[in-house]
């Protein structure tokens, strides 16, 4: 096992980054209690292994995640890190979602706070977390493009939007990548969204590659997971049994089921970058080792047969959140 990170580019116009990227949301309590010192160690372990891409959102932990990353980067070379930040999701004091704000004035405001919390002078990829139904995507992307011109942002990304919105956004300014859920259990982007991104030279940063722990997880359900339909009674048991079907293939490859699932996403195309969330430093090496797994056409066909598209039970988010997703329309 070489356990080496590889490099992929985020679309035709985006930065080169290491694969897999490190998703930081889970370091701020999204899936259960965390320890800040250990979380910083996770980020350091990834960077020390040669990793470059850190993915976050200004609403993760109500700003805690950005401050955590800022702490982890205090003694690091800023130019060796690619920061991908989502903005626009609003939260109340109790943590409950209270909508989205992607107005041009809000773009500047959110960006200012992110730069301060992260302790940097620019963000490498900046993206609205969701489509604001009250603001044309052209206005939001135009506002980020102004921040690119002023040097506060390097590249523009999108998140959880459909093919039509992708085309409208790309007509305003170059789009580096679309961040969207993609995994063995979630493959709806293959219909229209993935072909559109390929046509336009837009990369895919795939999140929830391990389906929030359904694939290769410990079985523990904390944080927001009990509210997720796929983890609710009946669905969880079905989905875990579905994933168990690929254990034999993973064993043949000398890998874990989680590593196989990461390798499967990476094998779907060079323009697709898996973003993986881990919570313990020792998990970094295991994540990186997924790059050593080679899946040929026969392997991929066998996996498709064992885990057919659409076989998962339950939506990926509760129904109110699903209704807000432009990517699901």
From TrEMBL:
The keyword RNA-binding does not apply. PANTHER family: AFLATOXIN B1 ALDEHYDE REDUCTASE (PTHR43625), ALDO-KETO REDUCTASE YAKC [NADP(+)] (PTHR43625:SF40). Residues 21-306 form the NADP-dependent oxidoreductase domain. Pfam families: Aldo_ket_red. It comes from the Bacteria. Gene3D superfamilies: NADP-dependent oxidoreductase domain (3.20.20.100). Keywords: Oxidoreductase. This is Aldo/keto reductase.
